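Q: We require from you a single protein entry containing the residue sequence and its fold in C-alpha coordinate form, and nothing else.
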Amino acid sequence: MRILLIEDDQMLGGAIRDHVAAQGHAVDWVTRLDDASDARAAMPYDIILLDLNLPDGRGLDFLRQLRKRGDATPVMILTAMDQLSMRLDGLNAGADDYLVKPFDLSELLARLGAVARRYGGNPNPLLTIGPLELDQARRFAAVDGRNLDLTAREWGVLERLAQHPGMLVSRSQLEDTLFAFGAEVESNAVEVYVSRLRKKLAVDLIHTERGLGYRLGVK
Protein backbone atom coordinates (compact mmCIF):
# COMPACT_ATOMS: atom_id res chain seq x y z
CA MET A 1 0.00 0.00 0.00
CA ARG A 2 0.98 3.62 -0.43
CA ILE A 3 0.09 5.59 2.68
CA LEU A 4 -0.02 9.33 3.38
CA LEU A 5 0.82 10.04 7.03
CA ILE A 6 -0.17 13.50 8.31
CA GLU A 7 1.32 13.85 11.80
CA ASP A 8 3.30 16.72 13.34
CA ASP A 9 4.66 14.81 16.35
CA GLN A 10 8.20 13.95 15.27
CA MET A 11 8.69 10.94 17.53
CA LEU A 12 5.31 9.38 16.79
CA GLY A 13 5.45 10.18 13.09
CA GLY A 14 8.90 8.66 12.75
CA ALA A 15 7.87 5.54 14.66
CA ILE A 16 4.76 5.05 12.51
CA ARG A 17 6.65 5.64 9.26
CA ASP A 18 9.46 3.24 10.15
CA HIS A 19 7.18 0.50 11.48
CA VAL A 20 4.74 0.58 8.59
CA ALA A 21 7.51 0.87 5.98
CA ALA A 22 9.22 -2.16 7.52
CA GLN A 23 6.15 -4.18 6.52
CA GLY A 24 6.74 -3.35 2.85
CA HIS A 25 4.47 -0.31 2.50
CA ALA A 26 5.42 3.08 1.07
CA VAL A 27 4.83 5.89 3.58
CA ASP A 28 4.93 9.58 2.67
CA TRP A 29 5.08 11.58 5.92
CA VAL A 30 4.12 15.25 6.12
CA THR A 31 3.60 17.48 9.15
CA ARG A 32 1.38 20.19 7.65
CA LEU A 33 -1.97 20.19 5.88
CA ASP A 34 -0.74 22.29 2.97
CA ASP A 35 1.98 19.70 2.30
CA ALA A 36 -0.66 16.97 2.61
CA SER A 37 -2.80 18.70 -0.02
CA ASP A 38 0.19 18.92 -2.37
CA ALA A 39 1.01 15.24 -1.84
CA ARG A 40 -2.59 14.16 -2.41
CA ALA A 41 -2.76 16.19 -5.63
CA ALA A 42 0.42 14.57 -6.91
CA MET A 43 -0.22 10.95 -5.94
CA PRO A 44 -3.15 8.57 -5.34
CA TYR A 45 -3.00 6.89 -1.93
CA ASP A 46 -4.47 3.67 -0.64
CA ILE A 47 -5.11 5.20 2.78
CA ILE A 48 -4.50 8.42 4.72
CA LEU A 49 -3.49 8.53 8.40
CA LEU A 50 -4.66 11.88 9.77
CA ASP A 51 -3.88 13.71 13.00
CA LEU A 52 -6.55 16.22 14.03
CA ASN A 53 -4.41 19.09 15.35
CA LEU A 54 -1.83 20.29 12.83
CA PRO A 55 0.25 23.50 12.87
CA ASP A 56 -1.67 25.02 9.96
CA GLY A 57 -5.20 23.83 10.61
CA ARG A 58 -7.65 21.19 11.77
CA GLY A 59 -7.55 17.68 10.42
CA LEU A 60 -11.35 17.52 10.36
CA ASP A 61 -11.49 20.48 7.98
CA PHE A 62 -9.00 18.72 5.69
CA LEU A 63 -11.14 15.57 5.80
CA ARG A 64 -14.35 17.46 5.06
CA GLN A 65 -12.71 19.13 2.06
CA LEU A 66 -11.57 15.75 0.75
CA ARG A 67 -15.07 14.34 0.93
CA LYS A 68 -16.61 17.53 -0.51
CA ARG A 69 -14.40 17.08 -3.59
CA GLY A 70 -15.59 13.50 -3.93
CA ASP A 71 -12.29 12.00 -2.77
CA ALA A 72 -13.15 8.59 -1.31
CA THR A 73 -9.62 7.67 -0.16
CA PRO A 74 -9.95 5.82 3.17
CA VAL A 75 -8.96 7.99 6.14
CA MET A 76 -7.98 6.78 9.59
CA ILE A 77 -7.91 9.46 12.29
CA LEU A 78 -5.07 9.31 14.84
CA THR A 79 -5.67 11.54 17.86
CA ALA A 80 -5.29 11.85 21.61
CA MET A 81 -8.86 13.18 21.86
CA ASP A 82 -10.96 10.24 22.99
CA GLN A 83 -14.25 11.97 23.80
CA LEU A 84 -17.27 10.32 22.22
CA SER A 85 -18.29 13.63 20.62
CA MET A 86 -14.91 13.89 18.86
CA ARG A 87 -15.11 10.31 17.59
CA LEU A 88 -18.60 10.96 16.26
CA ASP A 89 -17.46 14.20 14.60
CA GLY A 90 -14.63 12.36 12.87
CA LEU A 91 -16.78 9.48 11.65
CA ASN A 92 -19.56 11.82 10.54
CA ALA A 93 -17.02 13.90 8.62
CA GLY A 94 -16.14 10.82 6.58
CA ALA A 95 -13.41 8.99 8.50
CA ASP A 96 -13.26 5.23 8.03
CA ASP A 97 -11.66 4.49 11.40
CA TYR A 98 -10.58 6.33 14.54
CA LEU A 99 -7.59 5.30 16.65
CA VAL A 100 -6.89 6.98 19.99
CA LYS A 101 -3.32 7.75 21.06
CA PRO A 102 -1.36 6.16 22.57
CA PHE A 103 -1.82 2.98 20.56
CA ASP A 104 0.18 -0.14 19.79
CA LEU A 105 1.76 -0.09 16.35
CA SER A 106 0.63 -3.67 15.73
CA GLU A 107 -2.98 -2.55 16.22
CA LEU A 108 -2.41 0.28 13.75
CA LEU A 109 -1.16 -2.21 11.15
CA ALA A 110 -4.13 -4.51 11.72
CA ARG A 111 -6.58 -1.64 11.34
CA LEU A 112 -4.80 -0.39 8.22
CA GLY A 113 -5.22 -3.77 6.60
CA ALA A 114 -8.87 -4.04 7.61
CA VAL A 115 -9.74 -0.58 6.28
CA ALA A 116 -7.90 -1.23 3.01
CA ARG A 117 -9.72 -4.54 2.50
CA ARG A 118 -13.13 -3.00 3.18
CA TYR A 119 -12.39 -0.18 0.75
CA GLY A 120 -11.24 -2.69 -1.85
CA GLY A 121 -14.59 -4.46 -1.62
CA ASN A 122 -13.25 -7.67 -0.09
CA PRO A 123 -13.13 -7.66 3.73
CA ASN A 124 -11.96 -11.29 3.71
CA PRO A 125 -8.19 -11.33 4.34
CA LEU A 126 -7.83 -14.72 2.62
CA LEU A 127 -6.99 -14.76 -1.09
CA THR A 128 -6.62 -17.86 -3.26
CA ILE A 129 -5.21 -17.83 -6.79
CA GLY A 130 -4.68 -21.34 -8.11
CA PRO A 131 -2.24 -23.09 -5.75
CA LEU A 132 -1.36 -19.79 -4.03
CA GLU A 133 -2.96 -18.86 -0.71
CA LEU A 134 -2.48 -15.49 1.00
CA ASP A 135 -3.63 -14.45 4.45
CA GLN A 136 -3.32 -10.66 4.41
CA ALA A 137 -4.08 -10.32 8.12
CA ARG A 138 -1.30 -12.69 9.18
CA ARG A 139 0.96 -11.81 6.22
CA PHE A 140 1.22 -15.49 5.39
CA ALA A 141 1.61 -17.03 1.93
CA ALA A 142 1.82 -20.63 0.79
CA VAL A 143 1.88 -22.58 -2.48
CA ASP A 144 0.32 -26.05 -2.36
CA GLY A 145 0.67 -25.90 1.42
CA ARG A 146 4.36 -24.92 1.26
CA ASN A 147 5.05 -21.80 3.31
CA LEU A 148 6.82 -18.96 1.51
CA ASP A 149 9.57 -17.04 3.31
CA LEU A 150 9.16 -13.54 1.86
CA THR A 151 10.85 -10.24 2.58
CA ALA A 152 8.65 -7.22 3.29
CA ARG A 153 8.96 -5.89 -0.26
CA GLU A 154 8.47 -9.29 -1.86
CA TRP A 155 5.28 -9.55 0.17
CA GLY A 156 4.27 -6.06 -0.98
CA VAL A 157 4.62 -7.02 -4.64
CA LEU A 158 2.81 -10.33 -4.22
CA GLU A 159 -0.03 -8.82 -2.21
CA ARG A 160 -0.59 -6.02 -4.74
CA LEU A 161 -0.73 -8.51 -7.61
CA ALA A 162 -2.96 -10.91 -5.66
CA GLN A 163 -5.45 -8.14 -4.87
CA HIS A 164 -6.00 -7.76 -8.62
CA PRO A 165 -5.84 -11.32 -9.99
CA GLY A 166 -5.65 -11.52 -13.76
CA MET A 167 -5.37 -7.74 -14.06
CA LEU A 168 -2.38 -5.84 -15.39
CA VAL A 169 -0.36 -4.05 -12.71
CA SER A 170 2.27 -1.72 -14.13
CA ARG A 171 5.83 -1.39 -12.89
CA SER A 172 5.15 2.19 -11.81
CA GLN A 173 2.15 1.05 -9.75
CA LEU A 174 4.32 -1.50 -7.98
CA GLU A 175 6.99 1.14 -7.37
CA ASP A 176 4.34 3.42 -5.85
CA THR A 177 3.32 0.56 -3.55
CA LEU A 178 6.87 -0.06 -2.35
CA PHE A 179 8.73 3.25 -2.28
CA ALA A 180 8.01 6.60 -0.62
CA PHE A 181 8.74 10.02 -2.12
CA GLY A 182 12.47 10.71 -2.25
CA ALA A 183 13.51 7.07 -1.96
CA GLU A 184 16.35 6.01 -4.22
CA VAL A 185 14.88 3.40 -6.55
CA GLU A 186 17.03 1.33 -8.86
CA SER A 187 15.61 1.18 -12.38
CA ASN A 188 15.28 -2.61 -12.17
CA ALA A 189 14.08 -2.84 -8.55
CA VAL A 190 10.64 -4.22 -9.40
CA GLU A 191 12.10 -6.74 -11.83
CA VAL A 192 14.46 -7.98 -9.09
CA TYR A 193 11.60 -8.53 -6.62
CA VAL A 194 9.46 -10.24 -9.26
CA SER A 195 12.36 -12.54 -10.18
CA ARG A 196 12.86 -13.49 -6.53
CA LEU A 197 9.14 -14.14 -6.13
CA ARG A 198 9.06 -16.42 -9.15
CA LYS A 199 11.87 -18.51 -7.70
CA LYS A 200 10.13 -18.79 -4.34
CA LEU A 201 6.72 -19.54 -5.86
CA ALA A 202 8.25 -22.24 -8.10
CA VAL A 203 5.03 -22.25 -10.16
CA ASP A 204 4.09 -20.23 -13.22
CA LEU A 205 1.81 -17.59 -11.68
CA ILE A 206 3.42 -14.21 -12.44
CA HIS A 207 3.19 -13.33 -16.12
CA THR A 208 5.07 -10.46 -17.75
CA GLU A 209 3.39 -8.19 -20.28
CA ARG A 210 6.52 -6.76 -21.87
CA GLY A 211 6.69 -3.00 -21.56
CA LEU A 212 3.39 -2.91 -19.64
CA GLY A 213 3.64 -4.76 -16.33
CA TYR A 214 2.65 -8.01 -14.66
CA ARG A 215 -0.39 -10.23 -14.10
CA LEU A 216 -0.91 -12.84 -11.40
CA GLY A 217 -2.98 -15.87 -12.29
CA VAL A 218 -3.17 -19.39 -13.67
CA LYS A 219 -3.02 -19.59 -17.46
